[in-house]
């Protein structure tokens, strides 16, 4: 079994994983935040793209479950001598991991690693496609704060076209019963957005007064997101969560961001650090969610 995409995961299954993660929030709060659930198991981490939150929280999660980790990153590896993803996966796979966590710039890479190695794979982000554990930690954070996801008005704002987070989190939140709206310049909306369970608008100011959750995204310069609007100043003016806009949000509205944040572009520093911000809570919940997913993937399976 693998966790490659959030698409098609039923609400009951998402709720079950969130319940499991809630239990691990309690474990992580103990004086000794560790359980022996995955003692003797090894997690192979293939991170072909940079990461701070996802990589470190998977490592923290694995260790809190008493598992060992083997972490690969291309710099300093034999990728510089021309070794392919397939050969790297088979090589690391021969060293005895029970599961792979894979991040890669190419859509579909985690599926290929699962096929080649026959091991369970957790997708830690593939191109602009999917990031299922991010979607789960976002749902957990919202559910903890509001007591539910169902019925909430959620806006995802910014560079949606290039965002695996938007694809995953919108799907998960819609499955859990939220009304999801994408707010972005037309040039930063996905080409196939009509098929998604979301509404779309370019008018952030017009939407702002009836939102429960505002989920801000950075402009993904590395995927061309900065090339499709006239200037950063104009973007901030229309799509940034400035202090002026944040002041117009209803009192109960909360702000999320998957990180890394570009302060002063999509989000004002005072908003990022302010009382509405759930950003650090998202990061903390990432550990509990990844514990839940690792345990779910490996419990019941024999040691390989
Ligand atoms: N949210 C997220 O995936 O962050 P990293 O790229 O730092 O892992």
Task: Describe the fold and architecture.
With 304 residues, the protein is of the alpha/beta class. The protein folds into two domains: 11-131 and 283-298, Rossmann fold; 132-279, Aspartate/ornithine carbamoyltransferase (Rossmann fold, 3-Layer(aba) Sandwich). Helices cover 38% and strands 14% of the residues. It contains eleven helices and nine strands. The chain has a five-stranded parallel sheet with strand order 7-6-5-8-9, with helices on one face. The chain has a four-stranded parallel sheet with strand order 2-1-3-4, with helices on both faces. Helix 5 (132-146) crosses helix 6 (164-175). The longest helix has 20 residues, at 279-298. The two termini are 13 Å apart. The model has no long low-confidence stretch (mean pLDDT 96). The chain binds phosphoric acid mono(formamide)ester. Residues 51-54, 125, 134, 258-260 line the site of phosphoric acid mono(formamide)ester.
The CATH superfamily of the largest domain bears the name: Aspartate/ornithine carbamoyltransferase
Radius of gyration: 19 Å
CATH architecture of the largest domain: 3-Layer(aba) Sandwich
Count of individual beta strands: 9
CATH fold descriptor of the largest domain: Rossmann fold
The major β-sheet equals: 5 strands, parallel
Span from first to last CA?
Answer: 13 Å
Q: Strand share of the residues?
A: 5-15%
- Shape call: globular
What is the helix fraction of residues, given as a range?
Answer: 25-40%
CATH class term of the largest domain: Alpha Beta
Q: Give the rounded overall mean pLDDT.
A: 96
Please state how the strands of the largest beta sheet are arranged side by side. Answer: 7-6-5-8-9
Helix and strand sequence: HEHEHEHEHEHEEHEHHEHH
Instruction: Specify the number of helices.
Output: 11
Give every kind of bound small molecule, once each: phosphoric acid mono(formamide)ester
The structural class is alpha/beta
**Domains, number:** 2
- Unreliable residue runs: none
């Amino acid at each position: 079994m693998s966790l490659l995409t959030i698409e098609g995961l039923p609400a009951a299954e998402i709720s079950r994983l969130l319940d499991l993660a809630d239990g691990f929030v309690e474990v992580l709060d103990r004086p000794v935040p560790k359980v022996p659930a995955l003692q003797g198991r090894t997690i192979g981490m293939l991170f072909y793209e940079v990461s701070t939150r996802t990589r470190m929280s998977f490592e923290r999660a694995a260790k809190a479950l008493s598992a060992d980790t083997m972490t690969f990153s291309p710099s300093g590896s034999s990728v510089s001598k021309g070794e392919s993803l397939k050969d790297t996966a088979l090589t690391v796979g021969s060293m005895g991991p029970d599961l792979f966590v894979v991040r890669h710039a190419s859509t579909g890479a985690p599926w290929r690693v699962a096929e080649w190695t026959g091991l369970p794979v957790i997708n830690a982000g593939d191109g602009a496609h999917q990031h299922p554990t991010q979607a789960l930690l976002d749902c957990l954070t919202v559910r903890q704060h509001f007591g539910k996801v169902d019925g909430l008005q959620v806006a995802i704002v910014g560079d949606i076209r290039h965002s695996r987070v938007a694809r995953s989190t919108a799907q998960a939140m819609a499955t859990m019963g939220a009304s999801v709206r994408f707010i972005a310049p037309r040039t930063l909306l996905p080409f196939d957005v009509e098929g998604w369970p979301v509404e779309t608008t370019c008018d952030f100011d017009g939407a702002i007064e009836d939102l429960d959750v505002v989920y801000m995204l950075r402009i993904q310069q590395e995927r061309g997101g900065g090339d499709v609007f006239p200037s950063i100043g104009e973007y901030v003016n229309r799509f940034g969560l400035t202090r002026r806009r944040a002041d117009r949000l209803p009192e109960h509205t909360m702000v999320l961001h998957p990180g890394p944040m570009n302060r002063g572009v999509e989000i004002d520093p005072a908003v990022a650090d302010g009382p509405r911000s759930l950003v650090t809570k998202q990061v903390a919940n990432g550990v509990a969610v990844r514990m839940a997913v690792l345990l779910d993937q490996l419990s019941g399976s024999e040691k390989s």
